[in-house]
Structure prediction request, 231 residues.
Amino acid sequence: MGRRDSAGGSEPLIEIVDPGVARIRLPKPAAHVYVLMGEKPALVDSGMPESGPAVHDGLRALGVSPGEVSLVLLTHEHADHAGGAPAFPDALVAAHPLAAAKLRHGDGRATHTRSVSEPELELYDRSLVHAGGLALRVLHTPGHTSGSVCLFEESRGLLFTGDTAFGRGTLTDLFESGSRGDHVASLQRLLGLPARLLLPGHGAVSEDPRGDLTLALEAAHEDLPPRAANC
Prediction:
């Protein structure tokens, strides 16, 4: 993976994770923003409400004008992923219907923000989205939240996981609409994919998706409450 250092900073701001795919690393707690640099550039997630200027700077460093971004794909509704979408007023914003409903209705308890763009496009399970030169299969992967999705580019084995799965098998937290049982089922689904790179919303890119997903699944099973004894 190639890197470009941020101006005046020791932390790399931009990483080229695969040809035509870059990652803008934002200060915590903001999620990473993935840039799909095709003829019509697109983003996977958008960072925090205050992340707009940093994302714009990252795009310019990649030779992409912020106004060129045509589509913002949200992996779920939380502020650290969806909050930066208003910085792209000319782009379509897309999310799973369950995430979109929370954003449209200003459900701050679920989104942890009120600074959002209302999704105009809904991402249904198994639908195919052409974004930034990639053909992305939408996978509904509830667990972290009810409306979480992952995006899979099969020909290149790229798996964008948001907060559903992380490198090194780190276990995701559950939020208001989340469920560990749903999360287990989602991880099992992801394990069936021929992924080459796992591109998470936080932390390092994984070059061993199967190994890290297996670790996450083991941890998720351990986090399930014990079964009640039969009466």
Notes: The chain has six helices and 13 strands.
